[in-house]
Every structure is written in C-alpha cells, then in structure tokens.
Amino acid sequence: MRLGRRGLLGLVAAAGVSLAGDARATGWYEMGQDMVPRERTTVDVSGYLRTRGEALHNLDLDRGLTPSGAPFFPVSSADPRAQTLTHWDMRLRTDVSLYAPGSMVAVKARLDVLDNLALGSLPNDVPAATTGQRSPTDAIRVRRAYGELLLPFGFLAAGRMGTQWGLGMVANGGDCLDCDSADASDRVAFITPLAGHIFAAAYDFSATGPTTQRALQNRTLDLERSTNVRTVTFAFLQWRDETARARRQKAGKITVDYGAYLTHRWQTDDIPSTYLPSARPVDPFANGGAGIMNRGYTASAGSAWFRLLFPRARVEAELAYVTANIEQSSLLPGVLLRQPAKSRQMGAAFESTFGNADERFSTGFDAGYASGDPAPGFGAVQRASSPATKPGDLDGPQASPPRDNRIDNFRFHPDYRVDRILFREILGTVTDAVYLRPHARFRIAKTRSAQVTAHAALIGSHAVEASSTPSGKGPLGIELDPSLTFETNAFLAALDYAVLFPLAGLDNVQSNLSAKPAQLIRLRLNYLF
Questions:
Q1: What is the 8-class DSSP label of residue 424?
Q2: CATH number reported for the structural domain that contains residue 196 in this entry
Q3: Cβ pair 191, 199 in contact under 8 A
Q4: Which of 6, 229, 232, 485 is a plausible cystine mate for 10, CB 3.0–4.6 Å?
C-alpha cells in the first residue's frame, strides 16, 4: 500500500500558502506586505551560498545489524569497522521577486543551484587525475514559480509555491539556513482579511497523470481524470508582523497570535505502475485499462497553532490531527484486499524562550509528541515496495496487508530540527516518540556589526510504542548539542557538536549488544545576499 509522508502527511503541508513579501517567505500571513506603489518594474534578489562539512562518528552505534541485515547508519564498505565518516556539500539559493508597475502584480521564484551537491563528487576524469568538476544534469532546480495579484477584496496567488504553517512541524517551507528539504504545492489560493483575521482557501493539484503529448505542441494532456489527487484547504488566523510584535513587546504588551485549518485530499482510482519499479515498461491502458484500479483514498487533517509573546518571553505550540482511509490498498491489479487501510495520527510541538534576542542570556524548554504504531520499526521511511518489518528492525513500513491495515505513526517534517544525531541522522525525523528539550543561549561578545553566541540543548527521548524499538523497550537516548556561532549581516559561521548516549530501546537484544555513544561535528558557512 502507498501511504507515505508525501501521501498522507503531505496533506497537512497543503495548509501553508506562499503569499509573501519575498520568495523566501512561505506563510499566507505575509500576504501583500510587499505590495507598494512602484513606477517601474522592480526586481529584488536575495538568498545565500552555503557550504557544510561534517564528521560523523559511530552513528551505527556499534550494536550490530538489524534482523533485516542492515546497520542503523551507513558504514564504510572498505572497512565496516571504521568509526568515522566525513562529508562536505554546498547549495546556492536565489529568491527572485519581480514587481510590475503599480501595486497589484508580482511574480516570484526560487532557484537552487548545486543543491546539496557533495563537494568533489563529479570529477571530470579519473579521480586521481581530475582537474575540475562536471556540472550535474540537474544543476538548477526550480523550487517555486508563482504569481500574486492584489485585489480590492483579497489576494489571489497561482503557481508552484512553498508551504509553511505554525512551527513548521509538518508543513515546512525549508527557509532556514540549515534546511535540506521543503514543501511546495501546485495551487490556486485566495486570501482575504475579515473581522480582524485572515481567511484563506486553496485548491491543490497534488498529483496529475498519466499524461500524453499533444500533437505539434509543447504541452501534455491528462489522460485519466479519476487517478488525479486533489486537495482543498480552508484556514483562518490572527497574526501580527515582526515590526508590530517588536513594538508591542517594547511597550510591555502581550501579543496573542493563533490560527487553525482544515484540509481534505482524495483520489478515486490509481495506476501503481506509474510509481512502482518494474523490469519493463507497463501500459496501464492495455487490456481495457487493466492497469487502472480503484483506490478510494480520502484523508483529512486539522491543525491549531498559537503563540504568546510576553515582554521577555515567547510560548508557541502546534497540534495536528490526521485521519485517512483507503478502500482498496492492493498495489496489484486484479488482486484485491477485502479490508480497507486506515490511519489515525496525532502530533504536537511546544516551544518556549525566556529572555529577548537582544539580551545576553536566554533559556527555554521545548517538547514534542508524535503518535506511534505498534508494528516493528519506527516507520520514518515508508516505501510501497519495501518488505514487511521484523521485530528488531529500526525502520520500515507500518502496514502489511492483509494482517495489518493501519498506519498510525505521525511524522514531523525533517526540517523541523529537534536534535542532531538520533532524530535528524539515524531515524530521519521525529516519529513514534516523545521528547523533552531544555535549551539555553549565551552571547559571548557583540560589536556594532557582529556577534559571537554559544547555544546548548539537552534532548531526552522515549518511544511511544515500545514494540517499535529494536529492543522492545521504550527509552531511546539522551543527547547533548552545543554550538558556537559567529554572525554578521551578510555572513554566518556555525560550529556544532553533538553526542548521543543511546538507551535500552536501541540495544541489540538478538545479539546481546548494547548501543554505544555516537558523536558529530559540523561546520556550516553561510554567505548571505
């Protein structure tokens, strides 16, 4: 069955609409802020160049292989006993905004060049003798391209735009300087202010196809309307911009922002051969369309978000609930399953900070919850063609029809960063777990144009379903994440360290091996423009 993050939890990402002051902003609360009178066409360009280097030590935790024969984390092929892996990559991100004369129309785009390209990965010739690097075939990736129109009664946007909601726990536009992925949707959206709130409606073209080429045209045609996946979203929120929040904080006032949305996704039929691997091409329309099968997929999601800003503190939280039903979960045409597949998931994140950004010291406490599924493995990555999990596995599908027809583990967006080793690197995201995260910040030095800051966080994590862990026990780990950053208006350097002390949930009970500590060092350089 197919019910991955881009299928079910991708539904939640439909709630964020990119209507913004520039192409970097991805929340609908920023609509129209940049729509000011202009006498001529104006072009704004912004972005960054990022390079990162890291050393990852013992991320397989020295606890042996899972029952499926895989380590927790990739290891050296030449020497599986080697403890440290290294990596460098880069990205050039450019956000372009074009404003027509007047104050009504804007066109925006985001381009990523050499996106997360591993440095040295494309030598021109024999590696030992290379004198340069080749350009990859997808050197430039167009992440967004959409238009905005300011009307007397609202705001209309259409195209491919980023999505962001609340804390970014599920719908995340990937705008942070260390982000690796991002949500984007092909959509038409309308937003209007009413009664002191922002109301929005969006229609997403989540998936379309199969398609065919039109004669003598550089266009395609949708051949099977019933296989399309579509999403509709309705939302409202109260939100104040950064300037208003700062002004109210300086005046000693409390600011309350909040919002909620409902979204629904559906698909009537499906063509599994369009996304499943096969030894040879399959024509879904052969034999009277035998490759087209009923799916009966529906999914709905809701989310609530609020933020309290005090003169010297911030409290923010997000809650999401997702439910889905697949009437026919079989991926094999002609082979039907009697029981539908169902899902019920819940996730929540809480953040707090005590002390303002301009103060020398601040602290806070974060927490999160992602519902679990009792099937073995955490289910962070669920691929349609993956085999069923075994007790002791770290990851894998949470449903295995016909005996198990449920997927109940909620997954945070991978760019919502909680730690640096366990959830970010080993599991890939927060799922089937609860965590607590006290943190602190201390400004070491500050001048008119630069500052040096130390950060530290301590993360404790526990599985929601003990049966999901490799050992069948709940405690996962304690992780310490300190950082040192240097930043100016146009440059940021961050030196990160992390050490994970794994707990009983990650032990190898089959081989009687205890998981050992893992460490990470990462250097990140961001050149901003």
A1: I
A2: 2.40.160.100
A3: yes
A4: 6
